[in-house]
Amino acid sequence: MVSVAAPLDIDQLHTFIAIADTGSFTRAADRIFKTQSAVSMQMRRLEERIGKQLFAKDGRGNRLTAEGEKLLNYARRIIRLNNEAIAAFDDNRLEGTLRIGTPDDYADRYMPEIIGRFAKTHPNVELYIVCEPSTSLTEKMQRGELDIALVTHNPRERQSDVVRTEPLCWVTSANHPLRENAPVPLAVGRRDCCWRQLACSALDADGRDYQILFTSWSSTVVTAAVLAGMAVSVLPESALRPGMKVLTSADGFPPLPPVQIGLMKRPGLSASLMNAITDHITACLDNISIGQAAVPDDLDGDVRSFTPRPPRHRPGHLMPGW
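and the corresponding structure tokens:
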């Protein structure tokens, strides 16, 4: 007789994810509306079921063990599939049209997974996608022409909720060394883009000469200029691509502030629709790690490892201020 292992408990996995996200049993208990003793009991039972220690004390908090990190990936997938299965048989499924704005670089990297997951759970909702720079999307949001916009967070120009933060890097071609003692050749976004302004301000403050050789709203054009060895640009860490080299202070390049991706929401949008799409967007952005794009052996070297997760994370590229 074949022995069938007892299935994992969905509620325990929810609690486990909450602890992993908050780093604390206490904060997790507040998030999921349970007592701390109930949370501790659930985790003891989950560890007994797995047969491994999932948490280790880290000061006043808790960190995942190697086995805990391993389970976390499975837990997120199980919860996601469980939610999709429930939604597939929900007679009160959402309907209507949702107008989403995103720059083309964000669309390239993030939208395949967002669209795919949302379509599975809400097949009766039509998605209308607009790809334009963040400044244009902000204007459309103000005119009520969009419901949701994924933009570069820039509190001086627009109000948005930050949904992802990561380092911003100077990048050049790994196969074409920069000319010594020459002005830095830049490929950047248009004059009003905040990343272009950050890059120029950092070089000005460092006393480094530079020359803007390429200006384009197209991320494809700027990335091509970098890979061809014609220019230096700035990219978030998760957008590094094979053939690129990260430039650091050792190369004479000053540090840059981190990248923040923001979410804008139209006032008056159906709460159920807004919560549904924002949950998917947040989950997809949380799901992206440096290892799923291009990983430098060290951040002072060539980007050699490139392991996309097809079809969800095509190698993308973010442009300054878009």
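(Above: one complete record from the training split.) The longest strand covers residues 96-102.
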